[in-house]
Amino acid sequence: MTVDSQWYSSLGSLRKKSGLISNTAIMTDLITVEGVNKSFPLPSGKGEFPVLSNVSLTVRLGEVVALLGRSGSGKSTLLRIMAGLISPSQGRVLSNGKPLRGANDDVAMVFQSFALLPWLTVKENVELGLDARGVGRDERAIKALRAIDLVGLDGFESAYPKELSGGMKQRVGFARAFVLEPQILFMDEPFSALDVLTSENLRGEIDDLWNAKTFPAKSILIVTHNIEEAVFLADRVIILGSNPGCIRGELAIDLPRPHERTDPRFKALVDYIYSIITNPEIEVTARVLAPVLASAYAKPLPHVRVGTISGLLELIVDQPEGTDDLPRLAESLKLAVDDLLPIVDAAILLGFATTSAGDIYLTPVGQDFATTTILRSKELFQQQALQNVPVLVSMVQTLQEKRSGSMRKDFFLDLWSEHVPAAETERQFATAVDWGRYAELFEYDASEERLYLPQEAAVE
């Protein structure tokens, strides 16, 4: 009996993965922009100045989206159109599936300029939006104090704007938006008027609230020209071209939260976006890969199929505190240590598990992988593979560099042959194909013995 068949005999079936597709959460479109153009009249009736051209985008439930572009890309104009503060010249905006006519009640905004009324106290400034909505005095007070506390300004409720620092004034701006509990919070370069230390502190606090799931809005749309800020805060970055503003492309920030600046992937994303912003002719691609060392093929992959890794994680997640004793685990599965260790090595390599003193522990992403839906598990596997398995990154980069998006099998076998015995190259290739197929990084045609980029990636 092979290790895989022995494993599945012990496991029975991947019960948590089967039958869950119908329960997959479908992201809801909170706001949609369809073919929006915007022009402003030139002085003396000399025609019009185009600001936005054929812009289409969507903000979905539960995500942070950054609009990133140089001056002249129409970022702030687009934000105001989505907020219903100005109308598009052409196209339309949908909020919760309904055409937007007038101010968008589903959003609240935080501006670059603090926009506080100097004759009102902090509490009174925070209550402004509630007052406009006809909320009673007592309820206004309760909600305002709660929002003030959330942004760390408790004790300053009676202070006037002139008594506050720039950072404190912007906290009032956030509290004024938070108190409305909007579906989407719009932020128009909210940290650019602050000094470096203050902006970094406030940016970190906003990110902490979002990651802790205590943020008083369902989604965030932030306009920024700061590339590191976009990568730090956002799940998705939409890059705008200039003169007139247009969508050049978008990029998923495929980092676990919080987004650590020390992560090599973070630097790769920032560097890539810099190259896009500074080179208008470069096409924006959906996938960005971190630089790969020349020795990517030198470290052999554990010969384990994805289903086997998944099965191990599911067994461990059922144990108290998501941990298990390796000797006990080997005994329960009737596996020799030499058969169990490659599975453990694969889980560790992918960042799904760690070991200590003979015990195996699931990481947070490993627990997520073991308990989520099939579609989500594929996304997580792709994320972890691109971050932790250099040989897969190298293989994808090779395919991306080819105009055809394909490469023969022998090319990769030759690369492995410089580091492992000839018989081992076939096993390495087979394991890489299994992992790469599951992660939808590439496809393999056995009859042609060629790897291909997925069809949608090749089209891009």
Structural features, described:
The chain is globular and about 80 Å long. The longest helix has 17 residues. α3 packs across α4 and α3 runs parallel beside α5. The two termini are 44 Å apart. The protein folds into 3 domains: 177 residues, Rossmann fold (3-Layer(aba) Sandwich); 90 residues, Rossmann fold (3-Layer(aba) Sandwich), CATH 3.40.50.300; 70 residues. The chain has a 6-stranded mixed β-sheet, with helices on both faces. Strands 2-1-4-5 form a 4-stranded antiparallel β-sheet, with helices on one face. A 3-stranded antiparallel β-sheet has the order 11-13-12. The protein has 460 residues and is an alpha/beta fold. Helices cover 42% and strands 19% of the residues.
CATH third-tier fold name of the largest domain: Rossmann fold
In terms of DSSP E residues, the strand content is 15-25%
Helix % is 40-55%
Helix and strand content put the structural class at alpha/beta
How many domains is the backbone divided into? 3
**Gap between N and C termini:** 44 Å
CATH class category label of the largest domain: Alpha Beta
Please write out the topology.
Blueprint lengths: L2 H9 L17 E13 L6 E13 L3 E6 L5 H8 L7 E6 L2 E2 L7 E4 L11 H11 L4 H14 L15 H13 L5 E5 L7 H16 L7 E6 L2 H7 L2 E6 L4 E7 L11 H15 L27 H12 L5 E3 H8 L3 H13 L3 E4 L2 E4 L1 H8 L2 H15 L1 H12 L4 E3 H9 L4 H17 L4 E3 L4 E3 L2 H5 L1
Parallel strand pairs: 3-8, 3-9, 6-7, 7-8
Antiparallel strand pairs: 1-2, 1-4, 4-5, 9-10, 11-13, 12-13, 14-16, 15-16
